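Hey, I was hoping to borrow your eyes for a little while. No rush at all, and the record is pasted right below:
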Amino acid sequence: MAVSIHAGLVPALSFKPDLICLELEGSIVSFTNLSDQKESVASWMWDFGDPGSGAENQSELESPEHFYLEPGARAIVLKATTHEGCLAQHTLDTLLVDRPLVNFTWETDCYSENRGIPFLATAISEYSDLDTLLWTISSSGGGVQEVIGKSPAELTLDYSFSSLDAFDLTLYAESEAGCQGEVTRRIELIPVQVLSDADYMETFDHIPSGWIVESDDETESWVLGTPDFAGFEPSENDKAWYTTLPPEPGDYLEHSWVRSPCFDFSSMSNPVIQMDLMKSFLPGRDGAVLQYQDQLSQGWETIGSIESGLNWYNDSLILNMPGGGGLGWGLTPFEPDTRWLRARHALGMLAGNPHVKFRLALATGSSQEITAGKINQGFAFNNFFIGEANLRRSVLEYFTNSSGETMFAADHMVNNFAMKHAGLVYDLHYHMAYPQEDPMNVNNPLPPSTRAFNYGVPDVPYAVLNGGVSAAFRFNLTPPAGEISEEMLMGSSLETPVFELFLSVDYREDSLRGKATIVCLDQNFNSYLQLYVVVIEKEVSSYYWLNQDSSFRNVVLDILPTSAGKLLGNSWSSESTSEIEFSWEYASYLEDKEDLSVVAFVQDRESGLILQAAAEPHTFGVAVPRDKIVSPGMFIYPNPAGDQCRINFGSRTVKDGQLVLVDISGREVMYTMVPRGTQVQRLDLTQLPEGLFMVLWKEAGVLKGESKLILQR
């Protein structure tokens, strides 16, 4: 049998994809057919190696295209059938690669000359390692300032901008497969106000630097000018930020804010914020809140809670949610402010922070008539102040007796309150002669009876805060109803003090000698002052069988120079000073002189209000020799602190040293080494209870610095 064989020409197949770099959402890949002798081919058949695409995985076109949803390894097959029935096949094993996914953020947009801003990049390619990272910094006008190359492992950039401006940053990444990805973002730099010895005060009477109005949808009613709120009588040329709400019923809803410049709290140890405000809100619906931001990634944080400061928030269920939450200043009922209300709050959590900005965030509907002839007009604020807190320290005078369970419970309530608010309040315990004889009263009955008579104390246990000028500052502590108002204490502490009081005491072998210095901080003060110097024993344990207590705290031993105190003048002006010396011979009933402390306070003789107080204990711990000049640069932030704080020594330490924390009983509760060359030391305080501590910094046994630390959670 004869077989006829026909030899036909088979084309050499070849093709090329136009790209191998896929976008995140997938890409169309075009294939160029590079085969020779195409005229001999009767039909083509492609398999794109993408079975998930169904019928789209095949094509009969000469040079087709295919949509690939995902990168990955692909076996792409091209088959050809010639006019003579001959078959040819070519397979291309290739890897389709993802383009690098590129993005970056920055920690802050606060601009300080010669201080870098940290940028954090993300550059991800799952199918190919990165090869190149390039940062391009351009001015807002488009001019390239600098191009910085980084290795793929260096995902951070710390960059110091040349000026206060807006800049475009482009991050370009290329993988080893040659795929590129880039992103461009604009940073608009904000000026920084450095807070130090000089306070920051913005009255808004002239165009304020760095203050701008912002919103997410450009619905903004803020105006810088003279508020026109109903019933308000403005001072001439006194400008402020206020809202002019449109009289539009229905769907009008404004979420806007006035944003401040940035502030550098690096040199602040106990800052406070203060401003004047007026509210004219629809009750329950509208409100405003003060927030801060120190890291862009963390968003805006609300400052404080209801009544946590002087004239601070009064509502937690504001329907329109200023700043994203229900907490803030609102109105219930509709009684709009017709004069400025001064609000003040501690900023201890921001101490040491180099870049912080604030915003007054508003949430409001339109203006409408709420009661006859009265409409809501929104919010106004003025006189924005930041400075070191010059706290008005409070005095809690507690009248008790060493008998009965009632006194035992009240004693512990007062002790816990004083420990919780250490540094804000000094508690003095007067032991009375009723309802039963008390040996601590027998020792010296005159001071307790004099102070109780002055206040008209009805019974014990009883407490008087800051002179008890109103019923809100007087507390019947008979359980279960009796308790001390934290709001009254916090409000008093944040009031601007009229006087400062300094105390120095020399505790000798058998006596103490001291001096109280009273300084007026007001322009004019015309009331008579009464100075009281109180000697207390921080712990009395001789009467351990009484009142279920093993010891008694802050027992008043005497008042100097007499129980009536010392009368001072009534003509005071700014910086006028009075110095009063005092002395006390140790009494026979004193248990331990190292438990002594002196508390002094000045009281307005006319109103009865206690204006300022100070304390000087015998010792915070084992005595250590002092350097001739104790470092003035050491400070603690934040203070009050929570679970941690930082100690800034002012400059790098020149020797190895130690930090010692001592509680109010003189017991060392923490000890940590400070290596040479340290400027800032972090302390973990999670194992310590709340209270007042002394921080001692020593080098070679010599005291280099000391400061009080309040631990409050």
